[in-house]
Each structure stands twice: as structure tokens, then as C-alpha cells.
Design goal:
The structure is a homodimer. With about 220 residues, chain A is mainly alpha-helical. Helices cover about 75% and strands about 5% of the residues of chain A. Chain A is built from ten helices and three strands, in the order ααβααββαααααα. In chain A, strand 2 and strand 3 form a beta hairpin. Chain A binds a DNA duplex (30 and 30 nucleotides) through helix 1 and helix 4.
DNA sequence: GGAACGGCATCTGTATGCAGGTTGTGAGCG
DNA sequence: CGCTCACAACCTGCATACAGATGCCGTTCC
């Protein structure tokens, strides 16, 4: 009987890593809101496992900075303070600048070509006003920059920072005219990278993200 | 009986967080070498706790990147590959550059004064050839830069990166003439910050760390 | 003599039970 | 009517027990 249940659990494939990703997704996509408590028992029953793996998942999320943990207290989805949020946006701009700069120096011919093609293709989405699709393209675009820097540790830092910022920049493309502006800024970055103009690429990427951060901060303040 | 044992354990005060710090220290100071296996049972008996908290500690160390974890395998002190190590040193230089640049813009009068005083005081250590003491001062010096940037997220990233790099830069001041050179480079950084010359401070800090990284990489390659 | 297979020892992954801390609620007192 | 204190329910932290996986070693067969 016990075995049967275990098999079922394994069938559903709920390992700790999957739980981490699932919960992280919920936080990042806003399914769980900042400040919300993450009760171990509730999560355990939700994922059909015992509390032990849930605890490990929560600890990992804590290390990732997505949830806060205090002794004898439930894990809580981190509600980032205004100043810390600002510091993350600023750090993000710096990191994007680094990635764009290094990409301009190091991207392979193939990477440059793919970046440009993908970018050109996104113009269609701008004209169509396809916010969802453009958001997906945007994620892909930036990931290309992160990879193009050919620096694994920077990649890790920027990826992690982006994950932690995700909850606060969800609706960024809803702002009127933001799509076209984003495309324009992407264009500057791409052009600079193709030209291998590292300084210009870094500057363009920094500004691009810094601007997004301002808009998003305004939105977050107004939206909540 | 059980209670008594528990009390003893609590007396020794071995909580998960303390274990994380203890193990992290062992890794960072080289008491445990990269590639070494971290057996849960051994650690549990060493810290006089059960395997459960040990597992949580290991998971946290894994999230910090200090140990690697694979399914059904012991946790292993991460043996950073050459290219990843290089990427961390490069990232460290970038981060130090950011911190110095922001410090030049944002440090309070008190922070600038303390930085300069501490720096001037370290000349004595250089003359005395006090490598240990200078290393301590050096850590303090850089921490001042990290704090002076007034950006909490950057502070976190740079601190974490430094922790992960620590095992690989232990003997950096043993290299002949390195002390004086370090002081000289610190001097450029301090001077630029006092002058509020952000670009110069950033450049100086970047070069300072990049140089250290080269020397340390050489040492690591030769030493092992 | 070598290779492959099977059994055993060992370690990880998870469930469960228990002790202690935290919080919320209700009764009693001011 | 409000405040305080105590108690109870609940939740976290840890220990222990058990199931599954991995790797090693010895034996056997080719």
C-alpha cells in the first residue's frame, strides 16, 4: 500500500528540483504574491510528497532569494523593499551592459547572425502589437546577449537577477508605445554588436534596461 | 534520555545555518579540498546532528555553488573548471569596477575619509612585509568598496563571488613584490574615489583585480 | 586468465513521529 | 469595553526508520 502510493508519487515525478522550479515559476509568474506564506504542509499535500523534500525545496528557494526564511516561521515570498528593488534594477542594467559589451567582442559569427535575424523578425510582432509574443522574443533576445558574453559566471548572475526581478516587470510591454521603443533600443544594441563596438553596445544595453526599470518601477508603484 | 541528548546537541548549538557557515569556512579556507566528497553520515556525526539538517545544509551550499550535487551521489566540493574559474575572475573584475565607480559617486564623506585613513595605514604593513595582516587589510579595503557602492544587490553578488573565489587566491600575497604593487593600485583607486572620478576609479579597480586574477591563476596552475 | 553477473554493503531520498516554538483566541480582570 | 494572560491549535525543526539506487567485490563461466 505504502509502495503503491510511492510509485504514484514517482509517476507524477515530483522531485525536489521540479518542486523548486514549480514554486519558482509560481512566484515569478505571480501565481503566488509577495508576502504570501508558503506553508510546508500545504505544499506537501499539493505536490503529494512529505514535508521533508518540501523543506529542502524551500531552503533552496531561500538561497535563491525568492523566499525569505526565519527560524520557526513559515517561508514567505520575498517582498522586496523599494531600495533593494532599485538596487536590483541598477545591478541588472550593469550586468546587461557587461553582457552586451562582451558580446560585441566575443560573439561568434553564427551568434551575431542569429541575434540579428531574430531581432529583425521581431519587427513583425511590433507592428502586430503582439505583446505576449514580443515579451517571449524579448526574453530570448536578452538571453542571447547573456550567452554571447561567453562568461558562465556572469551568465549565472544575470539569470538569477532576472529571475528575482521577474515578478516586478511583468506588465512592462503594456505601456503604450513601449513595444516600438523597445525594438528601437534593441536595434541600437544589435547594430553596435554587429559593428563590434563594445562601448556603444554596453551603453545601449545599459540604457535599455535602465529605462525599463524606471517604467516598471512606476508601474509597480501605481499598480499595487 | 532522548531529551538529554537533544539538550546536549542544542547546547553545542549546531543549527543548520551554523553548519552552512562551518562547512563553507572549511571549503573556503582549504580545510576541505575541491573534489572531496561530503558524506552526509560523516558530517552528521561530526556535528552531532541527524542527517536531515545536514542535507538541508548541503542543499544550501549547493545553491551557493560551493558544492556540486547529483542525484544519488554524495555532495562534492566543487572543483571549478579552468574556464569557469576564469569567468569568475573576470566577473569579479567587472564587479569591482562597478563598485569602485559607484563608490566614487556615492560614498559619504565619512566613508571616503575612513577608506583613505585605512589605506594610508596599510603602508606600514607593506614596509613590514606583514603578509597576513595585509591580507586582512585587503579584505577590509575591498569590502569598503563594496559597501560604498550603496547597492545591496551588487554587494550580494560581489560578496558571493568573492567567497567562491577565495579557495583559489589564498596565497596571492606570497608572490614577491605583490604587497607593494597592491598598495600602489589601491592608492590609484582611493585617489580616484576621493576625486570622485568614477571612470578612473572603475578602471583602476578593474585592472587591480584582473592583475590579481592572472597572478593567482598562474599560482593555482603551478601549485596544484 | 579475464570478463560478466549477482549479491552485499553503503549511501541517498523520503516518510513519519515527536519536541518545542509561535500565534490566535477566549476568558477573566481592571 | 478594553487589555492582558493563559491555553490550545498549529506549524516548524529535528530524529529516526525504511525504501531505492549505486558501487564494489567475489564468484563463476567462458
Amino acid at each position: 500500500m505504502k509502495q503503491v502510493r510511492r510509485r504514484e508519487v514517482i509517476r507524477t515525478g515530483t522531485t525536489v528540483e521540479q518542486m523548486v522550479r514549480a514554486i519558482a515559476d509560481m512566484i515569478v509568474t505571480g501565481a503566488i504574491l509577495p508576502g504570501e506564506k508558503l506553508d510546508e504542509i500545504t505544499l506537501a499535500s499539493r505536490f503529494e510528497v512529505s514535508r521533508t523534500p518540501v523543506r529542502e525545496a524551500l531552503r533552496e528557494l531561500g538561497a535563491m532569494g525568492l523566499v525569505g526564511r526565519e527560524p520557526n516561521r513559515s517561508a514567505v515570498v520575498t517582498n522586496v523593499t523599494g531600495t533593494y528593488l532599485h538596487s536590483m534594477f541598477e545591478a541588472m542594467a550593469e550586468l546587461e551592459g557587461i553582457c552586451a559589451r562582451l558580446s560585441a567582442e566575443r560573439m561568434t559569427v553564427d551568434e551575431r547572425r542569429a541575434l540579428e535575424l531574430d531581432h529583425r523578425g521581431s519587427m513583425r510582432l511590433v507592428h502586430a502589437g503582439a505583446e505576449e509574443d514580443y515579451a517571449a522574443h524579448n526574453t530570448e533576445f536578452h538571453t542571447r546577449l547573456y550567452r554571447g558574453a561567453h562568461n558562465d559566471h556572469v551568465f549565472e548572475m544575470v539569470t538569477q537577477t532576472r529571475a528575482r526581478l521577474a515578478p516586478f516587470r511583468r506588465a512592462q510591454f503594456r505601456l503604450p508605445g513601449r513595444l516600438a521603443k523597445s525594438y528601437e533600443e534593441h536595434d541600437q544594441i544589435v547594430t553596435s554588436i554587429i559593428r563590434a563596438d563594445a562601448a556603444a553596445a554596453g551603453q545601449a544595453a545599459y540604457s535599455h534596461v535602465a529605462i525599463v526599470s524606471d517604467a516598471s518601477a512606476v508601474f509597480a508603484a501605481a499598480g499595487e
